């Protein structure tokens, strides 16, 4: 079996995916399947931190469109990401593997605060680290958080798990002429305005020279495949 290409990565998991077929909330079979995939991927010898989104519960932009201030709505969104983290932490632990949730907010009764030192420590101990609370600031996304945390903890790549197998020129589910890219530079990804990740995330990745690998998590085992450099995805780098 091929050796993993990376030693330490950040995986970005969208909250929406955790809803499974329901559209919102947490689908336990989906969480359990992702937990199993993460454990199998870690057994390849890769240190794994996961940045979890919150779109299955709250998206700040949507809530603020109904009247709440954007910072308040984003705070709800960030708290939703903590809930998803805790659900994933519990699922991984229930399968007998060590996991540690770290939050961007001080909430000592619930989970530990994210610090670079804590993340380094738990990753070195062989725990899957779940990062909740986004950046801790409104107006950002968990895509940007994934790149920020990857740069902070010296990860070698960000793996962006999505519903499609890479970056396309348009939504392949709506436009049959959409073109799929094997590889893009950060600047091409920004200039193309591709919807798969926000421009702030791509810009920070360009600034910190971090590759982003966009791939589909729909197939069980795809995280491990990507870590071995064998899976199908788009590499955004250089
Ligand atoms: N959020 C935020 N700051 C951050 C990260 C997230 O305010 O640094 C809020 C924002 O309201 C966002 C919500 O948390 O809509 C959920 O995150 P995101 O939309 O990135 O989740 P995903 O779409 O990946 O499920």
Condensed summary:
This protein is α/β, with parallel strands linked by helices and 238 residues long. It has a single domain, classed as Carbamate kinase, CATH 3.40.1160. The protein is built from nine helices and eleven strands.
Describe what you observe in this structure.
The chain has helices at 15-18, 28-42, 60-64, 70-94, 116-124, 142-152, 186-192, 199-207, 222-227; strands spanning 8-13, 47-52, 99-103, 112-113, 128-132, 157-162, 167-168, 180-181, 183-184, 212-216, 233-236. It has a single domain (8-236), classed as Carbamate kinase, CATH 3.40.1160. The strands form 2 sheets. Strands 4-3-5-2-1-6-10-11-9 form a 9-stranded mixed sheet, with helices on both faces. A two-stranded antiparallel ribbon has the order 7-8. With 238 residues, the protein is of the alpha/beta class. The protein starts with 7 loop residues before the first strand and ends with a strand. The longest helix is centred in the middle third of the chain and has 25 residues, at 70-94. Helix content is 38%, strand content 19%. Uridine-5'-diphosphate (UDP) binds next to α1, α4 and α6.
